[in-house]
Amino acid sequence: MLRALSKSHAAAVRILAPRAAVLVETVRGRKSRFDPKAKSKADRIKVPSYSNAKDMFRLNVRFSEYQLLVRAIRFMFTEKRKKRKYEEEKGTLAEERVRKEKEEHRALMAWNDAENLKQRIIREERLKKITEAKELKLREEVLLHQKEQEIYIKEKEMLILQLQEEVKNFITQQNLDERIEEALNNPKSYNYAIDKTGQITKRTAFQ
């Protein structure tokens, strides 16, 4: 109904308007590029959508692989088309070219095998040197560990001998009376002063 009213209104304006006047109909649609921003969107800030860096890297890698595969397939089809056209145009020459290509391929394969053998010898020598270096380092570590173990055992043996010597001076139930009598016969004064070097400078006489 509104559409009909708008049509009738436009027709009435067209009839009643003077001849020299310019008629402009109001049409709802997209605004022009010169119109200002809407008030409801004045404070709107465009935030880019979230994208995961790992996913983007994976997609780029897969897209590169896809482009490479498509390029290779396109090149293969192009080569097949050119080869078919060449064989159709030049039959005997094509056979000669195929024979030369086979010979060239055979020579290149022989060269490739020789290079592979050379590289394998170099690689085996390098791996042998690396293995020998690892074994030498392992032997050095074992010898160093053995020396450290021997030093540790000697230190413990010396400590045991020292303890055995100290045990002889321990007070036991058997020599308790002798030690008491010795302490009474040889009194000692522990009231003394020392200097900065730790030497005893003055001792109080035992009373």
UniProtKB/TrEMBL annotation:
Main location, first listed in the record: mitochondrion
Key words of the record: Coiled coil, Mitochondrion, Ribonucleoprotein, Ribosomal protein, Transit peptide
Transmembrane parts of this sequence: none
InterPro entries: Ribosomal_mS26
Record carries keyword Acyltransferase: no
Stretches assigned to coiled coil: 83-173
Subcellular location, record wording: Mitochondrion
GO cellular component: mitochondrial small ribosomal subunit
Family affiliation: Belongs to the mitochondrion-specific ribosomal protein mS26 family.
Stored PANTHER family: 28S RIBOSOMAL PROTEIN S26, MITOCHONDRIAL, SMALL RIBOSOMAL SUBUNIT PROTEIN MS26
The protein's name in its UniProt record: Small ribosomal subunit protein mS26
